Amino acid sequence: MADDSAATPPSIDGNVLVAKSLARLGVTHMFGVVGIPVTSLASRAMALGIRFIAFHNEQSAGYAASAYGYLTGRPGILLTVSGPGCVHGLAGLSNAWANTWPMVLISGSCDQRDVGRGDFQELDQVEAVKSFSKLSEKAKDVREIPNCVARVLDRAVEGRPGGCYLDLPSDVLRQKISESEADNLVAEIVVSRKQELSLDSLRSEIESAVSLLRKAERPLIVFGKGAAYSRAEDELKKLVELTGIPFLPTPMGKGLLPDTHELSATAARSLAIGKCDVALVVGARLNWLLHFGESPKWSKDVKFVLVDVSEEEIQLRKPHLGIVGDAKTVIGLLNRGIKDDPFCLGKSDPWVESISKKAKENGEKMEIQLAKDVVPFNFLTPMRIIRDAILAVQGPSPVVVSEGANTMDVGRSVLVQKESRTRLDAGTWGTMGVGLGYCIAAAVASPDRLVVAVEGDSGFGFSAMEVETLVRYNLSVVVIVFNNGGVYGGDRRSPEEICGPYKEDPAPTSFVPNAGYHKLIEAFGGKGYIVETPDELKSALSESFAARKPAVVNVIIDPFAGAESGRLQHKN
Predict the structure, then answer these.
(1) Is the CATH code 3.40.50.1820 the one for domain 11-189?
(2) pTM value > 0.85
(3) Where does the Thiamine pyrophosphate enzyme central domain start and stop, copy by copy (predicted)?
(4) DSSP string, 291-340
């Protein structure tokens, strides 16, 4: 009797086809939390060479995926279960939307035949993600999977980067097709290609921008994380060297040019933005971080030259001159235009001298404060020790993840960035809870770099359980927790506020004093340190940085050292 099974061609299901499509399109990493119906998808992706980083919580995994997209320029992939898993994943998708980073959220969903019947974890997920997704696709048949995958990956990086969503019903993941048909579908994936800008297409705008910069008495170059995402550091360096124009990075633009550069206006920020007459703004939005480009912070007569990949952004801000294009490309074209008829502000230029003088004065004032060893710790003493330890690291600069209120504000002024994309913080939305997810993304995207998180205890608490993830994957991450006993520093209430039937309860801003955060990582086999003096902190950083193993350094801070913090307050 013949063996009928021998005549049956090999088949694969939707899980394998998704994994094959992702691998075919260059995906190398995924982040997420598995469960019904996507566990097999994660396993199949791993079998095809995609590294899957499993988290405890979809929020942290989503923050990791969004940051991975920024750091690599390729969409970060978040995999979640249906319903509540997808909803938790919205934290990462919305973060990608706010920061304009490429990311794709992939969620399982209920069987299509059971929609509307109250199926397990049923939710109209395409509708749920609408506010934060550039494009949402739902594969309604297994054969639609490859091109659905291609479309969301492509759209995530097209134009202004952002998040996209792919919905995978359970029945589609179970469907089977022959392996040969699947391979043909994957081979035929259609990927659209972006067109490069040319000097000809932007000639008028480039010439106008060069003319404005040349005629300006007090020009300023401002750049942000959009320029960092674009890999525009070499072009910006050349532009600054060609023109001698002072520059100001936004918080996550720090490092595109070294903070120590002689033309950095960071320590003279108020003077720079208040007095400049022409501001070339590259890859940074004129939102709250830049005071909306309005007086009194900016001169009411300043002329903005805004370079952005989004035409809508330029229409919204209504600058004197808008150039729609990728930062790296546009700055390269500007350099070509300037080279044809060069100009350069010298060190003796009054504008350059005034910026340099103010930056030096403010820097010296800061160093006087930093030089003091204050115990119990304020924020400045440990931040200086951390700065010096980071600068002493040999090889590639560590990636610094900064999260918290006072911790992030002080760190922005004290910590020094010398290389591009080595600072991650709360970003455009001021999002708390991103810290551990960002750490994991940075460690995975740049395995040759040490990752150092400098976190407030409140920020750390959002995702503290992910220290187990650090240990499980043995990632080179040192988490430094500024422990001041609560949000802003414990109980700051006035006597009049301490009343009512629950007056004996802790303040809304209070945590357990002197909490043993370092012991959390020890429970999983990592290294914990508790420090209260400069020598203890120096020793802990020296040992943990050298080991490049998962560690938590619990820095006890005076609970009265901080202050309430909201919008960025720049006093330079």
Answers:
(1) no
(2) yes
(3) 206-331
(4) GGG-TTTS-TT-EEEEEES-HHHHHHH--SEEEES-HHHHHHHHHHHHHH
